[in-house]
Sequence to fold (792 residues):
Amino acid sequence: MNIINKIKSSLHLKILVAFLVIGIIPYFLITLYFFYLKKEDLLQQKLQTYTLQIKQTKSLLQNRLTQLQEEVIFLSKLELFDDMISNDIDHRISRMLELKSKGFKEENITFIALNQHHIITASSNPTLIGKKKFLEPNTKIVDKNILFSTPLKASFDDRELGYLIALYPLKNLKSYIVHAKDINFIIKNSKKTLISSDNSQSKTEYTTIKTELENALVGYELIYMISNEKIFDFINRFLFYLTLLLLFGIGLIVYISKKLTKQIVTPITLLTDTAKEIIETNRYDLFVKSYTTDETNELACAFNHLIKTTALTLNKLDTQSNLRMQRFIDLTNMFNHITKTEDKDACIALSIKKLNTVIPNSLSFSKILIKESKNIPIKLHDFNTNKEKLYGYLVIDKESFDDKLQSRFFDSVASMIALQIERIGLIAKIKSASDAKTSFISNMSHELRTPLNAIIGFSQYMITYESLNDDQLDTISKIERSAMHLLSMINNILDIAKIEAGKIDINYSDINLFNLLKECEELISPMADEKGLKITLSTKTTQKQIIKTDKKLLKQVLINLLSNAVKFTQTGTIEIDLKRENNFVIITITDSGIGIKKEELAKVFSEFVQLKNTNQTKHKGTGLGLPLSLNIIKALGGKLKLESEGKGHGVKAILKLKYLNSHCD
Amino acid sequence: MKNILVVDDEIMNQEVIKKILNKEGYNVLTADNGQDAIDRLKQHKIDLILMDLMMPVMDGFEAIEIISKNHIVPIIAITALDDNKTHQKVLKLGAVSCITKPFELKELVHSVKSIIYTTKQTSSIQT
Fold:
């Protein structure tokens, strides 16, 4: 699996395998063809050759033997043999036989003349003369000789004289054998092997060809034993060369495929690398160099073209997106400008003007529908009836308008304009309502003061009478006090209204804070003395704390805070502290009074909220002091907060004012 | 006995000032508006005018302007308009002082007394 995957992933290996398959298949086909189809044919063909050869050998052999037989018969007919009647050794015959034998020269044939008594009377070999020799009937082979015998008969009376015998050495037969390596030549019968070639018999496999011999060698067979190697020698040699060729072919294939894949793969690798680089770096100015002229070159060209087109398209997109971004910025800008308008007509006019610079459409505004143009309604929301109300139309040339997207764009522009017009309307409404409220409060305050003037004036006038009894004086004093309380309440309301309407007058001047605090302390100390409270004033800084602020307003706040401290403290002390912290001066007024619950701390700055205390009547006040103080301090650019550890732990009022005020101018 | 003219459209206010100042030993005359005050000035010798500002027919601002141009008489403005602008405007037009309504008895008496005293001093120096 691993190898298959490896091959699958590599073009080089794929091509190599393909080439090898193409190269090896013919080899196997040829091999198969020879081994399984052609082998028998070849064998037959080869055997035929050998069969022919063996037949030839046989005939030659046979001829020779026949010739010898006839020679013997011919000799026996000679009248010379009549001399053998005497049974003496006959030198004449021996001489003739000797000559005859010499005539056969290398064949070394021995002729013997045997008489009736089986004694050799004459022979070509003189050593044999006089010896006895028995002839077995039908015996053909004697002492490694082939024996040819014929009876000798007297020419005159056909008397049997004896036998003429020719001894033909078997080794002569070897001259008829085909002397070839890997071929064994044997003449044998079932019992005896006459001759055989020298080749060792132990060699591999043999194929045998036989033929039966006749005449002198009846009963014997001529056998060819041919080594299979010899037979298939051709095939083996052919396959050997084929294998060599195959090896060479494989080498060639590997070399060519390597070279070829290099040609194919290199451009592809280059292409892949370039593509990867482009993906990683986003550089679309890269291109693939091609050194070939084949299809890979076309691929490279196409790739380069693609990159070029992509780069162009990207550029185009970039430009377009920039353009859109610019348009978006312009529009945002326009909306920013529109939101600053305070008048409906100005808003419309500015919108049209800005829109015409952003989008070169001939855009206009109309209260009524314009025919043959695109009209985009500006609808306002009526908050009283909760219904939509038509304000007018954005009119655009129909020619320059056929896009759905554009329609949505103008719709949103229209709704933006509508929002601003609504806003303008709402602001105007709120402003007029606020103005009405402020003028109402200030008028009311004025109208309320006038009768109060009389009440206070008369009651104070009455108090100056010495003839009043205690009860009368007390009653009139109560009237006066109530009137004064009412007055302070009206004053506070008026102040708050003024601050809220932004109509407070702030007169900045350099104030020595320590002196101001002393002044306030002196003002409030009679009230404290009455309850037996001690007021201490301390400062941790030796510097003169001179700041720029409105003395009257700051004093009002300080008095309010101090009187609160006194009001809500039964026993103990009230500490006034002044310190500097970076660019701020911090005044803290700490009392040991009833304190405020932590969750109620935030409420004390709400108007008309006086926290419900154990004894309401004890703490007279308008409930407007702290809200007013907070508003004043805010108007002066400072901060005011209350801290308390809870009920019964006193209150710490912290007033923070900008120190730098005195250096501003 | 010094003559003090109280100009106010509210009878109650005329009354309360009259009572307070009578008790201090001044003769108090009253007028209902600015025009009325100018008429009174022609009929009587007036030592001090206490002038309300918001009045019908002729308001205090106009009356102060006219009177201070034509007569030598100190004017104290008494107004329910409690703001710096009004105070400054009134002083600029010719009033010598400005008291905010509702006033405290002591404050009124103190102002009246001190102005009567200074005019007496200056007039004695002049004579």
About this structure: The CA atoms of residues 8 and 32 of chain B lie 5 Å apart. Chain B has one domain: 3-126. The two ends of chain B are 19 Å apart (CA to CA). Residues 105-126 of chain B form the longest helix (22 residues).
